[in-house]
């Protein structure tokens, strides 16, 4: 019985093997496709990177992020156990490697930019090394800021059971960590690398922070998913945002990219402000005054004075069923977080 099954399977297999042979050889189609692609690539409106200058490596930039996190929070993201006795050696090794890797990527970014835009020589190599060293010198300051962000998360979220949980698990802190590094590169006018970093954070956390935004200390994003913070946003100290908050720009004309590219398009959030979930605040002239509380599901395009609470009018919920219909007022939209 077993032999008959094997024989039947082999017969079927040979039939299938014969059946999958293409009527027209597959590879004969390739030259035509390649010629069509080449024709497209000759068009100035089509994009490619066929140049002698290497472009910054996306994978290498992501590795820089992880390396920076190992330096800023030693022992959290390493495979080996660290002790006080070997900590200085470990930090020396990691920081030296980080400086070398960062220099390579910054030099590549400058060279690519110069070649792309036919710019006069700006001594990319010297400039890259200088900026990389400047970033490394700023690592202690970045750590100070991130330590304050951790404390803000712990103080603002009763669900946090400890600082380790925030460092390991909180997407908001992950996004802020990457932003702090990307922002420093952005301030030093490093092309493309800050955006690679920001979009990596966006892809893994759902939080979109442009590296050009200005964000003060003790910043906390609770839950985080769907938060958007635009390029020219200014955020003060001790600000807390919840999921789904958008700090964005008003709609611009289709051809307004160049006209508004370097102008303030996003709002200012002053110190000690809380913005609850799914609220949208738009416009470069919009200022949310200090110590204000903005409730959930609100659309704001005008400034709010300091010490103001902005809430939606309480909606009425309708409970229908079993032949009954009952209306009940819902609580303030700012409640129910955490």
- Rg of Cα set: 27 Å
Q: Tell me the span between the first and last alpha carbons.
A: 65 Å
**Oligomeric form:** single chain
Across the major sheet, the strand order is 1-4-7-10-13
The best one-word shape is globular
Structural class: alpha/beta
| Share in β-strands | 5-15%
Summarize the amount of helix as a percent range.
Answer: 40-55%
Q: What is the total number of structural domains?
A: 3
Q: pLDDT under 50 segments (min length 5)?
A: none
What is the count of DSSP helices, taking H or I runs of 4+ residues?
10
> CATH topology of the largest domain, anyone?
serine acetyltransferase, domain 1
The H/E string reads HHHHHHHHHEEEEEEEHEEEEEEEEE
Report the CATH architecture of the largest domain: Orthogonal Bundle
Can you identify the CATH superfamily of the largest domain? serine acetyltransferase, domain 1
Regarding CATH, which class of the largest domain? Mainly Alpha
Main sheet attributes: strand count, strand direction, barrel closure: 5 strands, parallel
What number is the mean pLDDT? 88
Number of strands: 16
Task: Please provide a written account of the structure.
The protein has 338 residues and is an alpha/beta fold. The chain is built from ten helices and 16 strands. The protein has helices spanning 2-19, 30-41, 58-72, 84-117, 124-137, 139-156, 163-169, 171-187, 193-205, 257-260; strands at residues 208-209, 214-215, 220-221, 228-229, 234-235, 240-241, 246-248, 268-269, 274-275, 280-282, 287-288, 293-294, 299-300, 309-310, 316-321, 324-329. A hairpin with a 2-residue loop joins strand 15 (316-321) and strand 16. It is globular, with a radius of gyration of 27 Å.
